[in-house]
Every structure is written in C-alpha cells, then in structure tokens.
Design goal:
This protein is mostly beta strands. The chain is 0% helix and 41% strand. The strands form 3 sheets. The protein has a 5-stranded mixed sheet with strand order 4-3-2-1-9, with no helix packed on it. Bound molecules: zinc ion. Zinc ion (ZN) binds at residues 31, 33, 35, 56, 58, 61, 63.
C-alpha cells in the first residue's frame, strides 16, 4: 500500500481533486515516473483507499500498486476551507 500526498498536478506520487459533477469528486494521480492520469474508473473510499489497484496506463511504465490518497475527503476541496 502506497500513500500518496495531495499536490500540484504533475508532481510525482501526488493526487488532486477532479470534479466530475456538482459535489461529486474523483481524483487525478501522478505515478512515480511523472505520468498523469485519473482514477475515474476506480472507487475511492472515505478513508482515501483506492480500489482496485492502480496501473499506470503509459506504455512501458511499470507502476502498479494499491494506493491511499492521504487527506482525501469525498466532499472535495470545500472540506479544506476554500473554493
Ligand atoms: Zn507511469
């Protein structure tokens, strides 16, 4: 299990909120090789755990792990006091 911190898009091993529709959030994710992707086809539990395991979709990238999004809140960035 890999813990991913929230960060700017493109920073390695970070996640950020991705607004799907009003008040419904998923997350973007950057693998340890700097590849940017989304977790739209994954379930993010309230504790930040992502199911199922995450595979980077870039050709030749070997990233494949179970991840947890540290600081995840299913209510989105509003829960952090901004927006
Ligand atoms: Zn990758």
């Amino acid at each position: 299990m890999l813990h991913i911190k929230k960060g700017s898009n493109g920073e390695k091993l970070t996640w950020n909120y991705l607004l799907i529709e009003s008040n419904i959030y998923s997350a973007s994710f950057t693998c340890n090789d700097g590849h940017f992707g989304s977790l739209l086809d994954h379930v993010i539990l309230d504790n930040g755990r992502v199911e199922p395991s995450v595979v980077c979709t870039y050709e030749d990238c070997t990233f494949h792990d179970y991840i947890t999004l540290d600081g995840w809140n299913s209510n989105g960035p509003k829960s952090e006091g901004y927006v």
